[in-house]
Amino acid sequence: MAPMKQKRPAAGKRSRKAPSWKFTLDLTHPVEDGILDSANFETFLKERIKVNGKTGNLGNVVQVGRMKNKINVTSEKQFSKRYLKYLTKKYLKKNNLRDWLRVVASDKETYELRYFQISQDDEESEADE
Q: How do residues 37-51 score in pLDDT, each as one tens digit?
């Protein structure tokens, strides 16, 4: 008979943590100017984010936290960055801020609220015509 090989524990297999999705919303400019309340926006997100098709069902799956002018959203289940942009735009529309602020991706995991850049020269040249 052939000699039996001893089984060794697989060194390459480690206990894996479940993947998590982390996103950040940077509200620095509007909060410093006093036109947006970050605490109010945080509660809006907690109420509106859907988990398994139900709002208000965050549980331990999705965490929404606020650090000064930034809001961090961490999810254990798959979570779309685009969905976060959708909710942010919905909040801006609700508070009549959509005309002055826009949501811009500053990097792969971060959205930033910026003011629209309105050129004064363009308006004056149109008025002259």
A: 999 999 999 999 999
